[in-house]
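Help needed: design a sequence for this.
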């Protein structure tokens, strides 16, 4: 699967550079394609981190969450 991904990326680079005539415009291509892609990845990571933080914070103050996650107490016997 790794080789397929590498070949797919190489094919995408070839298509963009040759058929779209962007091979000579490396700096502009980086600024218009790679920078927004990196910002989008950061945006997704920030939302995942914030959602996880909110979930943990909500579970901290929810008494039903604590009751449902604590093991049952045995009253004598086995």
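Sure. Designed sequence:
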């Amino acid at each position: 699967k790794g080789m397929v991904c590498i070949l797919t990326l190489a094919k995408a680079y070839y298509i963009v550079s040759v058929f779209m005539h962007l091979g000579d415009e490396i700096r502009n291509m980086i600024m218009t394609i790679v920078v927004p892609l990196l910002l989008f990845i950061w945006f997704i990571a920030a939302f995942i981190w914030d959602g996880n933080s909110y979930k943990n914070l909500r579970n901290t103050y929810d008494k039903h969450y604590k009751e449902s996650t604590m093991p049952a107490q045995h009253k004598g016997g086995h």
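The radius of gyration is 25 Å.
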